[in-house]
UniProtKB/TrEMBL annotation:
The keyword rRNA processing does not apply. Pfam families: Pkinase (PF00069). This is Serine/threonine-protein kinase Nek8-like. InterPro entries: Kinase-like_dom_sf, Prot_kinase_dom, Protein_kinase_ATP_BS, STK_NEK. It comes from Hirondellea gigas. Belongs to the protein kinase superfamily. NEK Ser/Thr protein kinase family. NIMA subfamily.
């Protein structure tokens, strides 16, 4: 279920780049919080440019120790490599203020 082509070419936003790239959140309209976990919060957004619903998992990197920060960056890499119809699709990752944001497709109902 891994996309080995992506692995060979390099994963978008894997490694140090995930720490520095920022994105303008003005294109997103917050709808509601859908869940909270040990590292972050999953929030439902609507992209204004195409009206698509997406989940952005926001992880406050300042609240994590070094090991937890690395695990969060590893999550981006693993999500970007996964390619299966039963796995939520990774769309993008970026930094917003002190948060690592992981954008994924929205799966209504779960």
């Amino acid at each position: 279920y891994f996309d080995y082509k992506k692995l060979k070419e390099g994963v978008k936003m894997a490694g140090p780049a995930a720490k520095t790239r920022t994105k303008d959140m003005e294109n997103y309209e917050m709808i509601r919080t859908v869940g909270k976990g040990a590292f972050g919060t999953a929030i439902l957004y609507r992209r204004k440019d195409d009206d698509t619903l997406v989940i952005i998992k926001e992880i406050n990197m300042l609240e994590l120790n070094a090991s937890e920060r690395q695990m969060s960056l590893n999550e981006v890499t693993v999500l970007a490599l996964m390619d299966h119809p039963n796995i939520v699709k990774y769309l993008d990752s970026f930094e917003q203020d002190t948060k690592l944001c992981i954008e994924m497709e929205y799966a209504d109902g779960g």
